[in-house]
Each structure stands twice: as C-alpha cells, then as structure tokens.
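INFO  loader      accepted 1 record
INFO  loader      residues=256
INFO  predictor   begin
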Amino acid sequence: MKHSTLGQCTAVAALWLSQSVAQAALFEDDEARRAILDLRQKIEQLSGSGSAQNKSHAEEIFKLRSALLDLQGQIDAVKADQARLRGANEQLLRELSDQQQRQKDVQLGLEDRLRKFEPIKVMLDGAEITVEPVEKREYEAVMGVFRKGDFAAAQTGLTNFTQRYANSAYLPSALFWLGNAEYANKDYSAAVIHFKRMLSLTPKHVRASEAMLAIANCQVELKDTKVARKTMEELVKSYPDSEAALAAKERLAKMK
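INFO  predictor   done
INFO  writer      dumping tokens
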C-alpha cells in the first residue's frame, strides 16, 4: 500500500516536474525558486518516509533529484540567455542612441548649411532690408576696400557688385558709394550716371539729398555750371531741410 502511495506521489511529482521543465523558460525568478523549493520538499518527504530504504523508492528519489538538478540547470541556462538578451538589448539601445545622435548632428549640420543660404535681415542706412548671405559678405568686403581709401579697387568692386546683384536691396547704397568712388577717381561723368540711377530707384533714400549735391559737384567739375545750378535749385526744393540743401544754398549764393 505504501509502495502504491509512493508510486502515485512519484508519478504526480514526475508529471509536475515535466510540466515545470517544459515551462521553465516562462518562469520569473520568484516562480522558479518556488518550483525548486516545492520539488525539494517532496524529495525530503519521500526521503523521510519509512519505506525510503526500499530500492525502488531510492531510485524514484534519485530520479527526482536528477530532475531537480536538470530543472536548476535549465533555469540557469534561461537566466544566462536572459542576461545575453539584456546585453544585446542594451547594445542595440546604445547603437540606436548613437545613430539618433548622429542623425541629429547631421540634421543640425544641414540646417546650419541651409541657414547660410537663407535670406537674412540687416540694417542699412537706417532701414531694414532682406538680402542673401553672399550679398552681405560681398558688399561688406567691397565697402571695407572703400573705407581704406583704395577708390580704384572700390570702384571696380562696386561696379561688379551692382552688375551681379542688379535686384539687390543693397543696390541703391552700392550705387551711391560707387558714385563717390568715381568722383574720387575724377570719373565725373560715370559718377553722375550712378548717382542719378540711385535717385531714380529710391528718391526718398536717406542719402538722396547727398547724391543730388554730389551730382551738382560733378557737373561743376565738368564745367557745366548752368546745369549744376539747376541741380542745386532742385535739391533745395526737393530736400529743403537737409544739410545738403543748406550747402547748396551757400553754393548758389556764391555763384550769383
């Protein structure tokens, strides 16, 4: 009777063990520990029974212990696999993070490069204008030459600028300074042309009165006094409150 009961217990334990082994990969750590403890408890119960001396009982206990070791081995293997998976997952996350950072860097670099070509707003002669970055660089470069007093190089540079950027918001100012460079180089006829072009584009430009006075000065240098007088009279009429108009009045008084 005891043998039958023990056999039934062994069969139940074996069945439970086979199910546990089959599902070992699905156990959480706490569940695995509980499974091992339960199995050990069953072995101890069998070992402590009076019939444990029976050979067949000993064989059953041996099988259970072997199964216990096998289950423990499988659980250890699952843990090792989980550790490898965690390591692989962490590596993938690091690689993904690195890739995302690289993409972000590329995107920022691309945006920086694009910004170099996007129109920008600058202040010029008291007004805000929108220009291309390359226009700004070239205009500032040629004006740097003008400020150094190299009027021959400035005339060449400003001539090229006005031709290259015929629709630029810099054009009126570029024409004004081109006329000044030509005046300094005694190229009076060319200066008159460029001052007049500036006035036709922006008659209300902050330097419009200066441009008109410069035209009159060029006409004086060209010995065209009559036309110069007419230009100065028009200056006084068009820009009566300007300093250029005051200078024109003084010149007109001396010319009488």
